[in-house]
Design a protein that fits this description.
Blueprint lengths: L1 E3 L14 E3 L12 H9 L13 H18 L12 H21 L9 E5 L4 H12 L3 E5 L17 E3 L3 E2 L4 E2 L7
Parallel strand pairs: 3-4, 3-5
Antiparallel strand pairs: 1-2, 6-7
Helix pairs in contact: 3-4
Length: 182
């Protein structure tokens, strides 16, 4: 949402000096030093997966970015999975948990217990659609209702494979008090 008012005649304006941006949860402007760095990065082009010379520069940039991010997060760089965005990351995480759970249960026999996911009623469509798909594959999905302010109406439930709760939703202006992992 962009709220902007020009001083003359109360007309709306998209001039950046008059703009107040209220949706940083969705996107935000670049950090001030990033455009200069990006110009340097753009000089390195090529397929980073290729073995020829043109791919070496981009591969080095990606490797360095991965190592820097891993250091910031206190993890090994090989533990990071980079995606093109949140929807792809949600899809990958949910299907990954389902596949890992299903694989560990199979071992040449019928699945004894289906994976169970708990999810809030206000999740992103990429989460809801992926869970709809997984429920057709046998996953159990329990939707946790929310009150009119977007806060969970939830009582503890038996063990599950994964709990996926949106931390913050700008359109609801509701922030979760905790994120749970199992």
């Amino acid at each position: 949402m962009v709220a902007s008012v020009a001083m003359s005649y109360g007309q709306f304006s998209l001039k950046s000096e008059n703009r107040i941006y209220l949706d940083h949860n969705a996107t935000a402007p670049l950090a001030k030093d990033l455009p200069g760095q990006a110009q340097e990065w753009l000089k390195e082009w090529g397929n980073p997966s290729s073995i020829h010379f043109q791919g070496r520069g981009p591969k080095t940039l990606i490797r360095e970015a991965r190592q820097n991010l891993a250091k910031m997060l206190g993890v090994d760089s090989l533990e990071l999975i980079m995606t093109s965005g949140g929807s792809e990351a949600n899809n990958l995480a949910l299907k990954g948990v389902f596949d890992a759970y299903s694989f560990s249960q199979k071992k040449g026999q019928r699945i004894v217990d289906r994976p169970k996911f708990l999810v809030s009623a206000v999740e992103h469509p990429s989460v809801r659609k992926t869970l709809d798909f997984l429920s057709q594959k046998g996953a159990r999905v329990e939707v946790i209702p929310v009150d009119r302010n977007g806060f969970l109406i939830w009582k503890p439930t038996p063990a599950c494979s994964m709990i996926r709760l949106l931390w913050f939703r700008s359109c609801m202006r509701a922030m979760r008090q905790g994120i749970f992992f199992r």
